[in-house]
């Protein structure tokens, strides 16, 4: 919604008031506009979908959602009308969408305002609704009241049928179209220009009331139409107004527990029961799927997964072992409940997740890495709402909002350049440090520990990034737990600094790029046994932030313990190098630190070629390490040219193999040996 | 579209083939699938809107756009169906959308696949179309051919009427729904599971043909259904196939000029004719609006503006002086042409801009700063397409794609926290340096020079950020031209280093934050006349990138000329500090450089309070400068505490004024005097 700073939204305000009245006298105890929770969605056009998220697993909740005809032009709203098709009337409540057609946006006419009744009824009937039009201005309160009663009756019919085991096939949920002039009841004309019924009522209709006599008179006579003497008495609202407020708190708008304090912690299984043996290749996602299956079983009414049809492709299919996809238009899924919603609209997924989380439950949004960027502004809006909400004393905690990225740029089996976009990481990094959490668990056990932590956490934006392809398991369950707790550690099994200051530190942040770092250490051990190499993995990105810039940021001492005081440090990073560089900026002695990451290079090529073209392969790491280390180790300096030549030779061999065979040499992924 | 790597898309492939055949025999010479231009839009669901952009001002072009029922679930596609309402049949061509309903996405059923004919016809009739359903598999080629002929006839009818001065009111453009089984004509079953008509035909239907005898046989008999002996002869396509290829190049798909080489440079007015006098406050946007009005006049058929209904609000309303908003459903705008489209869907705006630019014309997308992030992944997809296209020899240049951000976080008169999001800058920074261009013109003259440059440029992604409120003009037209050419300069009028090494360099990047820097210089001159301060403004952000990292990056020497070798440098930056830090990372001696920028703090507060809460006010800059300068100037060190106290006192005074008066002290914006 555009801001309600003035007359512009008089229509909306009048409507909200009449709704409030209706709600308090409604026979449906739990009906509420959920305005606190969903207003934040207005600007980006996703309030409608947020409402659907709010009523899921809240069978007695009915949310009215007012949609301006401006925001109705947005894609996210246009897609969200379909969401009744994902609402099982047994387990979930209902939404009454009210499309408010006043004909104008800030200054242009609206699409819906220029559609006649036939066009509108046709469109929304096609979306699956029963449509009622409310437009008789002289009787608008009565008409709206009776229409809402009709809507409630229709909802009750659908719910009763479903809840008594005889669900209506493709139930046609009610929706309301409210036609009223923009700026209705405001000034008719100012300076000879129409205000009521025109775009000019948007924002400030009488701009010069503080310096122009005529404007002041217009303002005065407008405000007098509200008859303040009837509304106010002795500086207080009159009894007739106060009487509208329901007696019971539970009937007051905004005092529903769902709107301010409804957090239900999940019943979490022990992730260590799902841990795998180390020194094998295992898919992080497959193991996570098994774990999530248990989360679903343990939390049949307070955990949901929203995905743009990528669960199977992301190898998380095990979550479907004990639950289904909740799509009511599919005859095989109809009226069967189900914890999973797969709609190919990231906007809908994000809005459903927001609505579900804001009403106290916990959700997960797994996605191809490249597609979460689609909803980055929605995530930022959510975080802004939550930042302000945290400042309000009477608000309780919320579950964190949880994102899982896989099918990343690092493994482009058949997709290619269009599917390479790790930019959602940067979007989370730009949030306030209190909320921002980004994790790169380096193996399956670390991923299990991380997702367990995230689903239990509160008030954060958690982003977890992992691989769906089998990758090396480096840490036992116990070591993984310890590593994730610290956020970053020296991997002694791959280091040969003997606990002393090394010549160089090589650091992996991300699954595949960490494997390359460990393989680089193996390579360096073979080519240059005199080089003292330390291998570090960072699983919690935020530990790298400059001291005091993030709650997880390593103290200066801890940072030095890992990265030494003055030795070259080569970061091999999953995301864009510049974002990690920005994060590290106020750490001391940056001239010794180099960062390589995804560099917008790639195609439908082999996994290893993706490492090569983005300069994050083991060979690149090894070459950077050697060049950096020459400063501190004379023996290395002597052999520099020779070793670099050997590395170059190996790169060429691999490139040739890939270009002739169309696949990576198989031994490339052998578990590193030290 | 999901990638066509295998059988999954057999249906689509067959269809495309039959379309190609049709097109070559069609009576409409210019009909084309524009597949090169629009395929890149598939993944994010915006191919449909890109098609509409392509036909605008191409009156003889008809684009068929195939929309999968998966991508049809996306918001961008759901909104784009309305775009016929923005198509004037006199000046523009037409789109034939073909919704291909095969019922499945990667693994879940689709919404459209579960809607019956009545539901589908109702929905698309509501959107404004005439709907034809093609579904008779036995006769699919004939049915599709005759349906396309029908569609072409309907288009011709609408165009003829409009072009002979009798436009049809609310013309109902044709669209086609094609129902065919997913994986049609592929293997029926593999390992006992249905393939044809099931989601399993997505991607690889016979995965083990290289190691399993049964699979190999299935693959073989499937491929034999194509009857290769009929299609191929002596290792070449048979004559019957080759005969399908049209003789004339102009009838070959992909050889239409629009698809590969159609760049039309704009006829640009001289921006200096619009320049303003310096030392006054002028709105960059208002002056830019006047300039754009002239661009519109000079280029009546090759320049368009796409805006989410924010032109007036962004103070660019002057572009409407000689042209209108092209919205055919508005009776007052109908059949009147118009260079401006204002739809409240950033996704539609971006896709229209992409389609328009990809077919050789030039567009501009002005937006509130906070809302361009909505389309950041679409912009990235566009850039990826363009990066690859640039590598292809036979492709010509394209106009740059141009974004203008105003209504920024720095002026939150009535919007507030939800409208503060400068993250689109970071999205552009992550592009390949060859394409990424970000400009912060510090005043109206610099803005004119910049937009003139951008609209003339080719193959870039240009992001220009400016203020719509009156702000100080610091540079004359000549100085502005020189400054913009350099990208960054020392502002001597505000500096007191006398051309020698200063004690401190203070740098503004962005309109409002630069004003604060200049005011900080004024303040420091008064409080600490002994302090040698250099003021620098950066208008072309990319000059700061580390040497060789960007074509605009300053050489090491030039960087030192501006920022000295070792003096403290305080950046006051419009965007998120971390992105500038990332950009600067490989510059030497970073420990002397500090960056402040938008820090996710704010509300509906005064402009100056926004500076204060994000620590970029003149007082913050002055305090940082003094603290940094103590190292190099003993006199400053002595007075440090005293001056800091004085600054603190002034901050308190201003804060108190704002909190009691609800506005900024008026003298705060006086032109700085030196």
From TrEMBL, chains A, B:
Keywords, comma-separated and alphabetical: Coiled coil, Lyase, Thiamine pyrophosphate
One Gene Ontology molecular-function label: aldehyde-lyase activity
One GO BP annotation of this record: carbohydrate metabolic process
PROSITE patterns tied to this protein: PHOSPHOKETOLASE_1 (PS60002), PHOSPHOKETOLASE_2 (PS60003)
Ranges for domain Xylulose 5-phosphate/Fructose 6-phosphate phosphoketolase C-terminal: 468-672
Coiled coil: 626-653
SUPFAM superfamilies tied to this protein: Thiamin diphosphate-binding fold (THDP-binding), TK C-terminal domain-like
Ranges where the Xylulose 5-phosphate/Fructose 6-phosphate phosphoketolase N-terminal domain occurs: 33-263
Domain of life: Eukaryota
Cofactor(s), by name: thiamine diphosphate
Similarity remark: Belongs to the XFP family.
Name of this protein: Phosphoketolase
Biological source species: Cylindrodendrum hubeiense
Lineage, broadest ranks: Eukaryota, Fungi, Dikarya, Ascomycota, Pezizomycotina
